[in-house]
Fold these 3 entries.
Entry 1:
Amino acid sequence: MKLFSGERYDLYQYRKYTDLRLVFAPEFGIAFFGGDAEHSTYQRYDLDIAFLRAYENGKGADTPQFLKWSIEGVKDADVVFSAGNPGATSRLATASQLAFYRDYSLPITLARLQTRIEALRIFAAKSPDNLRSAGRLLSDYGNAYKSNAGKLIGLKEDRLMARKQNFERKLRSSVEHDPKLGTEAGKVWDEVATAYKNWTPFEKPFEVLERPAAQGSTLFQIARQVLRLSEERAKPNEQRLPEFRDSALPSLELSLYSPAPIDESLEVSMVTHYLEELKVLGDKEAPLKAILGAKTPQAAAEEFVHTSKLKDVAERKRLAADHNLVLKTEDGMIRLARLLEDPARKLLKKHEETIEALETSSSERIAQYRFKVFGVNDYPDATFTPRVTFGSVKAYKDKTEAPVPFATTFGGLYHLADILEPYKLPQRWIDGKPSLDMVMPFNFVSTCDSAGGNSGNPAVNQNGEIIGISFDGNIESLALTYLYSDEQARAVHAATQGIVEVLRKLYKTPQLLRELGVPAT
């Protein structure tokens, strides 16, 4: 694995299990108690766990090395270590990049998500069938909105930007005073600032026309992939767009040829919304006359969707195999994708030349400078590879200065419980309430540096015993993408005490408890 942009390489070796069988999973109502509204928040009351057994050659895998479960469980101020495969972070981003995200990119993303959420709510309110069709998108966009809003809130904190600017000044000064680097090396920060200033007017059309384009429309995504796959596959591998290179094709084709059902009425709603976005963008950016003619966005969307055969997987495969067929077909959604392809490609090329190439080169140089100045004391950005982070179990004060406890309890869960979703408890939990210890820790927080990719991984104490399972972070933790802080950001874990309590008293799983090395009673 390439770390510090090539200043160091680590060799990772994995044992891969492909035969995994479910041993235990709780009801959805308690695994996701509070629903989407509680995502990326704390205080939490979720039994967001499951147990799987790995098999080799039809038999349970032999794994003599394993982490033991703590009998005592979590306590305030415990030292805690959390292992996981955290996803990409942007700690190498410069202050000018963060300002661009804060002032332009994130506000545009949030505005687009907000209007789609509103459109989906209107669509979902029309019938139970519509609600079922729109439910997943509403959940996905709600979570995406909260995630991006959390990042924006963090970037608007003066302290975060001040810390970033101070760190950058110190690093740049060290670089410029280094006899082997000098003032020329320090100009990388100026290059990044200039590039983002020049790119700013193109950010909105880029998001609308190219990435992510028609959010919410599965048919448009399929149409664009079919169009580009049929064209890119004819090019030498190294000249293709990254998502169409040989290494990426299996994943792309798995998604493209999925037989998952597509709701045409939902598609019409989402494509209508997209065409309205294009109207706002204007004639200079999008070929509106060719797309709409004299039609309203609603009427044009109905025509594009209802004249498309892309719901048929066989039709997708037929078109993707022959670029000439794609260019000639009268399929409605393919026609829409074709009309937008030229302006989208131009913006993509400009983004690659203005931002992507510079981001790669500047990030590499800055990473190398940081490694030269700080060495391994400054750990590299996350890369979806194994990391172990440490921190402490710690309460905090929220933005209103209200104290937030280090752990929630079963008593708090039952205080929030309601007869309506998403706070409705499974019947087992209602019936079993008298048997549970109401002050037992259920979920807890730590200052571990957590990011997407840590969920499902163990949190262990200083004795190497599991005291929790990571499953989320609070809203303040979302800004950790850019800079670590332990002031309010917290990783959220399901406490082993609470897990054992319900396995014993509600789910009655003595064999599983014995396998975990925990007394069954």
Entry 2:
Amino acid sequence: MKFTLKKLDLEKSLGSLKKSAFTAESLIITEFEQDKKKPSLSSLFTCVDKRLNGYLADSIREEEFEFKAGETLVIKLNSAERFNLDMQNTKKIILVGLGEEKDFNKKNERKAIASLVRKVKAEKLKSFAIKAVKDLALLVETAILVDYEFTKYKTEPKKDKKELEEVLILSETASAKEKELISKAEIIANATNKARDLVWEPACVVTPSYLAKEAKKIKAENLTVKVLEKADCEKLKMGSYLAVSLGSDEPPKFIEISYVPKGKIKKHIAIVGKGVTFDSGGLSLKPAKAMEMMKEDMSGAAATIAVMTAISQLQPAGVQVTGIIAATENMPSGKAYRPGDVITAMNGKTIEVNNTDAEGRLTLADAVAYVSTKNPDEIIDIATLTGACITALGNVCAGLMTNDQALLERVKASAEEQGERMWQLPLYDEYKEKLKSSIADLINAGSGGQAGAQNGGLFIKEFIGKKPRSEEQISWLHIDIAGPCWFEDAQDWSPKGASGIPVRTLLGYILSI
């Protein structure tokens, strides 16, 4: 999709446009919900309506259209009406409701943009023109996110399907700042779609080696990608991560993506994404239905690659970012690790395995222990970790757990800005009792059906390192995306399916530093 910023005050230009000056197939007019007794429509609506001899006003009366948030009304134009507007290519005007002005917020703005994009696509239009309501970046980002479709494996595309090709953004200034906002929004939205693509792909394509290749595609002068092979991980004594990989014929790949900005570094953030490219449950085999969507168990890894892709382009000043992915499959075989095995993680802690389907936390244990040696200021891990989090929060909300409340609040504020739902779950000391083993330091699955999401979070916390010259742990945030990594229904900013959460939240946070 192409975004064109055009310096054009439409209200002043009507009647003096050349045929080539306005090429969009549809014109979008947004309005707040109207007081029926005292309507207050915009000057753009009034100007266009006057040139159409009251056609717009007649249409909203006949359809009882009230401009409620996300409500749309399509008005077709005949050749004479197009001539009157000097818009020969404009087949339709689409009215979009913003809801009540007093309640207007980013959520309503997103909802309105999503509605208009879906309506334009339903009408099989290639382009639309619009004046940004309030947030230019939000318009661009939402349009890209809502337009997204994964059709790679469709052999028979829908008949007469038309892709949305161009958005013409009308501006009175078309300033350099506006162009910069558009460019930044495109990078962030396209990165989110990159994560979606990786999650949509089948596990026969997205193997640990595939993720390593995708990471190596990220290129920038101040960014490096390193892939540790099995032998490298053995030298580092990553017994927890490697145990999960034993049952698979696919070799594990431990991926490190490092961005170091020029100049003074204010903060070093480590992002650790769970990268289990297919989770059968191992010898603790999942039921067939539960295994069906386990290609999505690498959503944290997909988000990490997407964030680092955007970072390579955005080049944030003052923030060092390290992305870590311990990629592997979790498969059953004669080589697979077993319930009852005792394994040793990189930091020396021993783990009694009582469920091979609690494998994500085992891969993350070595991943966070490894990145702790890099002395980051903050570690944020992203994982499709527990079905218990879906039970607690549903599939539209991620669970947050932390050892640093201030860090959680900062990331949660970014999530709210981006429209990504997140909620804090407590890590009470009482839950630690469930992690105790009779023969090792920890067991890997000990919730007994209670507080399962927190049990997983507390397990990972055991492997977070300490700050230099301190007994205090490195600041850490765990984001359990088991639910919202895949939407069962379309959302204001996302189609059904892979969501790309929490790419925008993390980028928003990093760029705010």
Entry 3:
Amino acid sequence: MWGAVAALVAAGLIATFALTSAGSGPGGTRSATSDTSGVAPSPEPFPQVTADAGDWLASFPDVQVTHRLAWGPTLEQWAAAQADARSMSLEDAAGQVIVAAWNSTDAEGAAALVSDLNLGGVILMGGAIDTATQVSALTDKIHAAGGDRDWGTIIGVDEEGGSVARLGGVIPTMPGFMSAGAASDKESVTDAYAGQGADLQSLGFTTDYAPVADVTAGLSDPTIRSRSAGSNPERVAATVDAAVAGYVSSGIVPVIKHFPGHGSVDVDSHQGLPVQKKTLAQLETTDIVPFRDAVDAGVPGVMMAHLVVSEWGGEAASVNPNAYEYLRDELGFTGLAMTDALNMAALQSNHSPGEAAVAALAAGADVLLLPPDPRAARDAIVAAVTSGDVPRARLDSAVARMIVAGRWQERLASEAEARNAEAPETYARDLTVAGATVAAESCTAPWIGDSVRVVGGTESDRAHLTAALSERGVTVAGSGTSIGLLGGDSSALNADIVVALAGPWGLQSSTATTYVGIYGRSSEAFAGLVDVLTGSAPPGGQWPVSLELPYDTCE
């Protein structure tokens, strides 16, 4: 089975290793030993380390006890990346840690931005997306603009699925990540994200700012909700690990977000600065659980949230050295630490564009994502390093991580080429079925006959469902089984079958004989819904959040 192979390969690619001390100082010789906690061994074991790698070891004072290397470089590879970083001019190094937004189909303009500022990369926004051919031409230009550097250029996208999907109409749109959280079979999650990763690779992307590792608190959570895998930290952690494995097996760098967890704050950081009301001890048993687990599994990228944890001080985690210190020293993360978008109101309300970029870099960020003015951010970094406010060594460390991660991704992509050619095209539909959750008076399928009527949802929702039903020979008319579509997280309906297209909380206020959650509203999601309702595929999900419904879950 293709998915099982992908999962095994991914496990090997993100295997973790412990460094144990043979000396007490950063120049002492250390040996690398395999971590035998059930993760497949790496095909490239770490060699003994000499004083040449001292800068890497000095970055992690606890390395003499145990330390995991997230993305899998050898220490010699790290030393080579540091040498490359130090050889750059200050202006080029400052540009390298910036990933700017690009929101236009103008490929020449995107290439000029990258080459003029020596940017580390770009993230393509909705306005940059039209057709597959156009996107491929755009990413080709951006890659070429990076010149002859052998670590490439980050070309990223926010392609979570559900409500955050930039590539709709270009590749299949996944349901919200809550669908993956609902899926009982986590191998199906790995399969789906390996399939999505293969499509991203074919378009020239290197990075997806996904999956979401936040644990949602439900309706009090204003921005994450069905973007999260659910409300149980352990189940969320297992889902995140499964998705990360799929991305890595396809050669895509996944970036989990939003550390230390955005799902339990009551302010949207796009609009203002949230303050986390939980203590750090409480976070460690809830919101931080998926991040800790993903770090242990070898995730290569973590995005820092714009939210305040009081025990770390009054600054947002994204610009707070205490947050980065916790991520590095407490969780043992050695991969790319990047900010959430620097153009969000949580930072822009009290930082100028240049100030936010400098503050994040000084705090410990390796990647400065979406500064509102990339040139102003680059120039502010140059000025801060020149004045001594930010040590050049801090900038070099960030650039070196970009380099070593880029080279790692290039190897992953090359190794994944044959696997990606075999990836199934139905991954979004398949994940919808795997995560579809049903509670019903009768768990015997089919739940619909030859004729149905559709109520609720948007005009687009009803059109997608009608098309999917018609393909299966089901007539949509003014009679028959009623299917009610809940488009909002808390909306309610009365129908024979009520389907949650986003979060499932509104099902509790609805009246039906069959309750369904599919957590998505793309054409692929509706096709999966019809597979379930007609009985051609069994629903594979459990409710990812606590609900009070009159019927048990169908299994």
